[in-house]
Design goal:
Length: 489
């Protein structure tokens, strides 16, 4: 029998373990549910986010095309094609890499979330030599604080017609459709084929007419400064080709990646990954074939991927990523948790590739294995879910303490179910300025997160910290799926 004076110590140990243990399955369910709160269009009968209703039902009428559906990217009511396509790619990659670790019902829910986006993306490339890149005038939209169900702002349709270029949006759309074709291959092969056929078409549009979509005068004022192409279109061409290679195993796409790597700057900006810059994700994705010993000619991509991963590890000589005092990956600018979720996702994906091939990474002064990468990713996940200096979960509706005043129109205004009367453009300002918690809980939404000092003020007006986005959540779905199956890597 243990000495009695050990019992208080054991009790404290057990209590501390209970505080830091997270319910990853619950978090996964909520991370996927969030996307229902972002839906545009005619909502289905099985809609679970009940405070939302139909919106944007006339989208596309000025072009005599149906552009209903898709997602609002964040807390506004605009459908931006560039981040929506990236969100779709990341949701699909989550299912491809970690879908078999999801409970069956959540796997189905993830596919539903992907399909809500892909049904819309298929519409955006349905006309020859044209891609629809956005619906909604952002200036008039951001000038109002109103529910999507009440929208009376201009639903301007922004399209790019060849020979004007849209390589970034078309390339990312190709990636999204190719990746999603893999996600649906077993459950809906006919839909998978449709996605893949349109992915090829989108890629051809991207490659044949090279350039950034935000350079076009017809769309620049609508897409900038919100989702301009700041980092060039070249990475999206390689990213789209890489996903088509993965989905088809066609050597033509392999040759494209091999021959265009240097000319399209595959070795530049290797430490960035997000809706605008695909380089780190591209390098991780392509490395799979190198690690498996299939295509050694792509070794430069593997070198770049591992160079990036080494920068994330404080013990290495090449470490240069910034962490907050509480341990969160931090990059200057807004919506910081997009970096934490996307980078943690890449760590887990690469860890899987290393495990399957029994390899490690040479980071100069140390060798890094799959377990190290997984533990790094887990620190980011647990920080977001509540293990941080604020003791706050940055996922709405998860844990006992989470953001109450998120920068999100639909969440912060009374639901149309509770307040059927129209709330006009400026009439919503009283709700925006209110210090009260949002009346509608956008379950699963991950906000922009704390600053470099780990502080978070829960202020609706501070959109850089309090606004959720689809592209923060999308990689987190895959991450959580991994930790559902492997809570202690």
């Amino acid at each position: 029998m243990a000495p009695s004076n050990l019992f208080p110590i054991l009790l404290l140990l057990l209590l501390s373990l209970s505080v830091t243990a997270h319910d990853y399955q619950q978090a996964l369910s909520k991370a996927i549910l969030f996307f229902e709160g972002q839906r545009s269009g005619f909502l289905p009968q099985d809609q679970r986010m009940q405070w939302r209703a139909n919106s944007g039902l006339g989208d596309g009428w000025t072009y005599n095309i149906d552009l209903t559906g898709g997602y609002y990217d964040a807390g506004d009511n605009v459908k931006f094609g560039f981040p929506m396509a990236f969100t779709t790619t990341m949701l699909s990659w989550s299912v491809i890499e970690f879908g078999d670790m999801m409970p069956p019902n959540e796997h189905r829910n993830a596919l539903v979330a992907i399909r809500w986006a892909t049904d819309y993306l298929l519409k955006t490339v349905s006309q020859p030599n044209r891609i629809f890149v956005q619906v909604g005038d952002p200036i008039s939209d951001h000038n109002c604080w109103e529910r999507p169900e009440d929208m009376d702002t201009r639903r301007t349709v922004y399209a790019v017609d060849a020979p004007n270029p849209a390589s970034d949006v078309a390339g990312e759309t190709a990636a999204a459709l190719a990746a999603s074709s893999m996600a649906f291959r077993s459950s809906d092969p006919a839909y998978s084929e449709t996605l893949l056929r349109n992915a090829v078409k989108a890629f051809q549009l991207a490659d044949n007419y090279r350039g950034a979509y935000s350079d076009n005068v017809d769309v620049r004022d609508g897409v900038c400064p919100y989702y301009c192409d700041f980092d060039g279109y070249q990475d999206e061409l390689l990213w789209g080709a890489a996903w088509l290679r993965r989905a088809t195993q066609d050597d033509n796409f392999l040759n494209y990646i091999q021959s265009n790597g240097k000319t399209l700057g595959a070795e530049e900006n290797i430490n960035e990954f997000g809706w605008d810059n695909k380089h780190a994700g591209l390098n991780v994705l392509v490395s799979k074939e190198v690690l498996e010993g299939n295509v050694l000619s792509l070794d430069s991509y593997k070198t770049s991927a591992e160079s990036f991963l080494c920068t994330l590890i404080p013990e290495t000589s090449s470490s240069h990523i910034e962490y907050t005092p509480g341990g969160l990956i931090y990059r200057p600018g807004g919506s910081n948790l997009q970096h934490a979720t996307s980078i943690a996702f890449l760590e887990l994906v690469y860890a899987n590739y290393l495990s399957r091939t029994s390899q490690t990474i040479n980071c100069g002064n140390i060798y890094v294995n799959a377990q190290t990468l997984r533990q790094l990713a887990k620190k980011q996940v647990d920080y977001i879910l509540g293990d941080n200096p604020m003791g706050m979960s940055y996922m709405v509706g998860y844990g006992n303490k989470y953001p109450q005043r998120i920068h999100h129109r639909g969440s912060s205004l009374p639901s149309i179910k509770d307040h059927p009367q129209v709330i006009a453009c400026k009439e919503g300002s009283i709700y925006f300025n209110s210090s009260n918690p949002n009346p509608n809980v956008l379950v699963g939404a991950i906000v922009g997160g704390p600053g470099e000092d780990d502080l978070y003020g829960d202020d609706r007006a501070d959109f850089r910290k309090s606004e959720p986005t689809t592209y923060i959540n999308a990689p987190f779905v895959g991450i959580l799926a991994y930790f559902v199956a492997n809570p202690n890597p």
